[in-house]
User: Fold this.
Amino acid sequence: MAKVTVDGIEVEVPNGSSVLQACEAAGKEIPRFCYHDRLSIAGNCRMCLVEIEKAPPKPISSCTYPVADGMVVHTDSPMVRNGRRGVMEFLLINHPLDCPICDQGGECDLQDQAMGYGMDHSRYAENKRAVKDKNLGPLVKTVMTRCIHCTRCIRFIAEVAGVPDLGATSRGEHMEVGTYVEKALGSELSGNIIDLCPVGALTSKPYAFVARPWELTKIDSIDVLDAVGTNIRVDARGPEVLRILPRTNEDVNEEWLADKSRFALDGLRRRRLDRPWVRRDGKLIEASWSEAFAAIAEKLHGLTGDRIGAIAGDLCDAESMLALKELMASLGSANLDCRQDGAHLNASRRDFYTFNTTIAGIEEADAILLIGTNPRREAPVLNARIRKRWLNGNIPIGLIGTETDVTYRVQQLGHGPVVLNALNEAFAGKLRNAKKPMIIVGQAALARPDGAAVLAAAWRLAASVGALTAEWHGFNVLHTAAARVGALDLGFVPGANDKSMAQMLDGGVDVLWLLGADEFDTARIGDRTFVVYQGHHGDAGAARADVILPGAAYTEKPGTYVNTEGRVQRGLLAVYPPGDAREDWKILRAFSEVIGHTLPYDTIDALRKRLELVNPVFARIGFLPRFGATDQAGPAGDPVALSDTPFVPAIADYYQTDPVSRASPTMAACTATFATTPLVAAAE
Amino acid sequence: MGESAQTNPVPMRDSFQPSTFAFDAESEGAIPGILAKYPAGRQASAVLPMLYLVQNQMRRQTGSAWVPIAGMDEVARRLDMAPIRVYEVATFYFMFNLKPIGTYHLQVCTTTPCWLRGSDEVVAACRAATGIEGWGETSGDGVFTMTEVECLGACVNAPIIQVNDDFYEDLDGDSTKQLLEALRRGEPPKPGSVKGRQTSAPEGGPTTLTTLQFES
Ligand code: SF4
Ligand code: FES
Ligand code: FES
Assistant:
């Protein structure tokens, strides 16, 4: 530790810290453009100047200067103020004065710091330089004349995203930030450079000229377009969601957000179900809520529970799933399933289906085996954590599955599950020697006939290499659906004598209730089955429905979600559902009354109490303790059943995976741009 | 500005860019020697000599010494670097020509010492002889490219033109004209002072210290 005095305040910081960090520890604000605590240090903007006693008698950039014991720092001396003013003046020489038409206006570091540390005028009277804008694809808009060459975007794309596409070409006055050879940024995390850019050089293309930050209401929520549970902030104006930004959560997403989760929001306005519909004579016609309810009630009349079933979709909140489960129970049915992809998830114990190491725990791992998963596509933010760990060095990573560029080097160990029976001896040795090995099983490994066997084999492997100890739980299931873990926690799966999804299809039930379930082939539903679709988008499920009940999307309801780690998180309502659409649990509650089985909760708080009763994990919001493995006994599965059929990637097109992103023109543009770009092997 | 969300970047290259580049036997022969100079795992350090290999090979093969994008991509592949890292280096240094140039690259120094010694005349003679108007342009016949450079470090023999890898010194309007005519005939004169000065020794001697006469 080093003792440093900053403006008379004494602080202790670890050796090797920068002076800037010491100043922060002392509560002093240091202006900056290039420095970012999650990126490497560049030291090129010179805004963070301070004065250090007994150091060279000149302003010193604090982000690059290491602390020393007994150092005395001044952050507000005349030399410092003058220095910063000078730097600011230089930065503004070539920066256009186009704030009135700049999308960064109101949340611009340059604007703020010019106000705080700059001069009130410029002495520069010559021509400013102009730089041609770059086309970085459908997501990131560029106005490169505004760029101040902080290189944050370059460093993020190369370091965190691992897709080194951006660079600074030419020199001096001619330096330009871009791709040199025109290309769309091939990273699923590219939107984050918009947040990182301290000026308006990189802004959101779909959001261009849409709103000013001060017009927006900002609501905390949870992303549901993958299973990471990224913490987001939903920015809305009136009834419309205009923007989605990440919130910092060190345990989950640090401060990153994946592109689909950030940009699919224009899908929230399109193809919405905003009123109930009832099919009459083969055609869907608009109906009132009571007509829709009456139509369902009539169908249910006289049916026994075993002829009724329900399937929960990928974006559902826990509240509505519990309400649906209990509605089904009141009708005598336990034909429930949440595994639309047919994944052989085992709900008998929680650590059989969660990401037990936790996302933050990845940073402690010292060997990783990926089985049937491409985390880059399935959970880009989580993948960034694996890359971060990989960059720290000394970690073997193996992959059983389709070869792709996951942004770090992996050892290809095979393509199908049989490999698990005879794992490459050298790699198995590395796993055994590792202190904290991780096994990550993806949905591609489970959604296949031998899925249960793969799950069991992966667990056995984890146990045999010492990944399951009292301190370390190295067995992980990586989900792709935000609702899945919550549904499993609630027991939204059939019991031994009840019908599974496959049995409910093909005429196995007479009434099938789809709660936002669109990710399966609806043609498999029996012709005579009466389908109730409750959800927010006119997608596959709605097209097959006999009655449509318009529900709320994730931004339009308060909801509880459990991410792949098993972390329970809550989002708030940002805007109201459109038209006649309602929050989903309320729809179920209202319908239960119609059929005389009134569900015992009138408020969401009462329903949440009920959640906690059903499974105590729902009482623990946000915080997730780390568990070791207490029970070595694994899930059942016949090892002989392991086939040699290669794993098929769980996600074919990252940009369109759910009703929201399929309705999004921005995501469609991404699909068009990237569908033809194959992922090339070998990371930097 | 104002483009719709639907515009997708189509990789756009100038028509003069070849779509592929492969090192020829001569370059291949030089590569192991270059790579051996750097410790294992630090091969990226070889990027500058490798880019020179590309430029020299282009001169051999096409008569024009320049580095095409395909060549930078090949260097990136050989050195296991991201292509953008090679683009950054190639565009940083003035010595790499990023588009085709003439057979003779006239790099005319116009910095103060050369200017004081008459670089304006040299420039004018070059313009007259080649028909080139602006800096960086290539003559219609593809023989000459004219570039304005800063001090070449040979001010003692100002003014200077660097032609490809050679310096021609002590120029004036006439000698520049003769130089260019000789080049056009494909008979490059001997590099160095056009006045026949020995390196940068005084004109007319002395050329060694031993011939100096000191007054006592
Ligand atoms: S575009 Fe923005 S983030 Fe990138 S270097 Fe320029 S100012 Fe920095
Ligand atoms: S923040 Fe220190 S130089 Fe940019
Ligand atoms: S000024 Fe021309 S060589 Fe120095």
Summary: Chain A touches chain B at residues 133, 135-138, 141, 143, 158, 164-171, 179-184, 205-206, 208-209, 665-666, 669, 672-673, 682, 684 (CB under 8 Å). DSSP finds 20 helices and 26 strands in chain A. The CA atoms of residues 141 and 205 of chain A lie 5 Å apart.
